[in-house]
Amino acid sequence: MSLLLVIEQVLNGLQFGVMLFLMAAGLTLIFGVMGLINLAHGSLYMIGAFAAAAVAGATGSFLLGLISALAAAAAMGAIVELTVIRRLYKRDHLDQVLATFALILIFSEGTRWVFGSFPLYLDVPNWLSGPVTLPGGIEYPAYRLAIIVVGFAVAAGLFWMIGRTRIGIQIRAGETDREMIAALGIDIDRLYTLVFALGAALAGLAGALVGAIQSVQVGMGEPVLILAFVVIVIGGIGSIKGAFIGAILLGLTDTLGRSFLPVLFGTVMDPSAATAVGSALASMLIYILMAAVLIYRPTGLFGRV
Amino acid sequence: MTREGIVNAVIALGLLLVPLWALWANEPFTITLATKVAILALAGVGLNLALGLGGLVSLGHAVFFGIGGYAMGILAQHAQTFDPIMEAPFLIEGTKSMPVIWLVAVVSSALAALAIGALSLRTSGVYFIMITLAFGQMFYYFAISWPAYGGEDGLSIYVRNEFPGLNTLNPIEFFGITYVLLLAALFLSARIAASPFGLALTSARQSPQRVETVGLRPFRLRLTVFVISGAITGLAGALFADLNRFVSPTMFSWQMSGEIMIFVILGGVARLFGPVAGAALFILLEHWLGGVSEYWLIWVGALLLAVVLFAPGGLIGLVTRGQK
Questions:
Q1: Which residues in chain B touch residue A277, judged by CB atoms under 8 angstroms apart?
Q2: Are B210 and B186 in contact (CB under 8 A)?
């Protein structure tokens, strides 16, 4: 096992981690501000990917596809918030789970209706398709590197927005005391729609970016959604910082586990058994990590008690 | 008799009369549908204990459903290949006997519920929902990546397992088994709900502090009901695998957890017969809408949304108009 391979896998882990962060950030914001658990967040991810694939396929421009993914997911998020989600803020978590589960069924089958059951493909743009040479002579796909850069940029933007802007102050105030900021004259309904649309746009962006390295298909959002839940459980609900650290931790654990656990087991047992045990254990590793965090800190690493 | 009691009796009788009619009219497929309703209702009765009585919104009950399914799959697989599960230190062989399979299914899903419950009940609210969902996914991926028992393809069992004195290959006799087990589970959950344990659990749901002040530990109460709930759902999983003579990782999938929850909610949460009404409605919808449109789940989604937003009592709540 060479150092180059390790560095490559660390980069893959970072890329996976920032993707998870884009999903988890929206979820944790929506939970923090509105107290809503949104299972349909994975559908917004899927909508972003489908919008990007459809527009990029029609126009040939990847950037146009990316912009339309953001727009479509944000618009769909706003529509869903205004028509359905708004009625759920005062309900208990069970109702929220069920209503957003119903939304998953509607979105998934609706997308299948419109686009058919076959996956779509979104091509990596030409100017990002080759490998780049990193310092030290490591060749790494430019597109994946671009995802990492975009992810870190979005994270920085979010931290700036939440920490330094007026809307960020309103969001933080909304997390602490809803009634109070409504009494101070902030249009709370508009703030909620805005936060939901922002979270949706982040999910859509993640879907579009990942769409170019995987296939774009119905049901692609939910596995990512559940991983984003694991991120939030690890990081602590409502904490953007927790979501970021949790996402990177999870991305690295999963990627490194999958590539190195079978090798590690190979040193003590025969190759086929090592592959079976190693890959089975690797598929459970992040959940074991989650269980460990739960034992150590039930409210997550950065969660408020 | 209360209004809900009458509705319950009608549902129980209906579920019995439909397959008997189908037997007379020689429509074996309808008997299979009724069997499916009874089995899925049983899974729902399990979840309803945790959800309705304990207030534990578990989105991971497919774990227990799947463990039950694999208990059947693994035991029957070893029996049909005459390959013992283990030889040392003592011999364990596969089996085709339903009661043994049920016992293994119940015990192993109860143990899984104990482990998952002990971890996830350290938290509450949304954390609990997300964690149960995540553990469900863990079992799903484990079943996919573990090659010994079929991996992604699952296991096929060629002949349905045996029950002493009955011919389980005869649809109506197999239906009879599932119906009796469903009634037994319903009876058990009615007894639990009315017992001191059930009352303590209800108070723990409504006011945990008050329960603590009288010297009971909500954690222990919740963990107990979670284990019972998981065990019942595990039994349903073993029966479901026997119905299909097939078990695959989809039994562990999050959609399965969601569907079991839909049965409970469509029928009416915390209603004794809610899961039965919900499962029956779901199977009917699947059968009718599935024939009309390939995208029938859209309408299930719309219906579920309507129930959550406008009819929180579910089907039984509508019929009884909220009365007990």
A1: none
A2: no
For B113, the 3-state DSSP assignment is: helix
- Residue in chain A closest to B263 (alpha carbons) equals A98
Q: Do residue B258 and residue A280 have CB atoms under 8 angstroms apart?
A: no
**Residue-wise burial string across B226-260, b where 16 or more C-beta atoms lie within 10 A, e elsewhere:** bbbbbbbbbbbbbbbbbbbbbbbbbbbbbbbbbbb
Measured from the Cβ of residue B106, the count of other Cβ atoms closer than 10 Å reads 22
Q: Are A294 and B123 an interchain contact pair (Cβ–Cβ within 8 Å)?
A: yes
How far is it, in rounded angstroms, from Cα B155 to Cα B241? 10
Please state, in angstroms and rounded to a whole number, the distance separating the CA atoms of residues B36 and A202: 41
Bridge partner list, A139? A133
Three-state DSSP state, B247: strand
**Rounded Cα distance, B33 and B31, in Å:** 5
CB contact under 8 A, A102 and B302: yes
The residue that leads in pLDDT, B299 or A238, is B299
Cβ–Cβ gap B305/A84 under 8 Å: yes
Site from A27, A30, A90, A94 to mutate, B interface, most B CB atoms within 10 angstroms: A94
Give the separation between CA B10 and CA B8, rounded to whole angstroms.
Answer: 5
Q: Given phi > 0 = left and psi -120 to 50 = alpha, else beta, which region is A185?
A: left
Decide if A269 contacts A33 (C-beta within 8 A).
no
CB spacing of A295 vs B126 below 8 angstroms: no
Contacts of A230 in chain B (CB under 8 A): 130, 134
A37 touches chain B (CB under 8 A): yes
Instruction: Determine the residue among A118, A287, A299 to mutate to test chain B binding: the one whose Cβ has the most chain B Cβ atoms within 10 Å.
Output: A287
Confirm or reject contact between A127 and chain B (CB < 8 A).
Answer: no
pLDDT one digit per residue (tens) for chain A, 305 residues: 578 888 889 999 999 999 999 999 999 999 888 889 999 999 999 999 999 999 998 998 899 999 999 999 999 999 999 999 999 988 888 889 999 999 999 999 999 999 988 888 888 888 888 888 888 778 889 999 999 999 999 999 999 998 899 988 888 888 888 788 888 888 888 999 999 999 999 999 999 999 988 889 998 999 999 999 999 989 988 888 999 999 999 999 999 998 888 888 888 888 888 888 888 888 889 999 988 888 888 888 887 65
Q: Do B131 and A294 touch (CB under 8 A)?
A: yes
Measured between beta carbons, which residues in chain B are less than 8 angstroms from residue A226? 133-134, 137, 254
Cβ-based contacts under 8 A for chains A and B: 120
Chain B residues with CB-CB distance to A105 below 8 A: 297-298, 300-301, 304
Q: Rounded to 5 degrees, what are φ and ψ at A133?
A: -100, 120
| Option in A91, A97, A233 nearest B134 (CB) | A233
pLDDT digits (tens, 9 = 90+) for A6-52: 888 999 999 999 999 999 999 999 988 888 999 999 999 999 999 99
Domains, chain B, ordered by start: 3-8+34-320 (1.10.3470)
Task: Write the pLDDT tens digit of every residue in B70-98.
Answer: 999 999 988 888 777 777 677 777 888 89
CB-CB contact of B114 with B219 (8 Å): no
What is the structure's pLDDT at B166? 86
Q: Is the ipTM of this complex over 0.90?
A: no
Inter-chain touch A31–B312, beta carbons under 8 Å: no
Segment A146-165, tens digit of pLDDT: 999 999 999 999 999 988 99
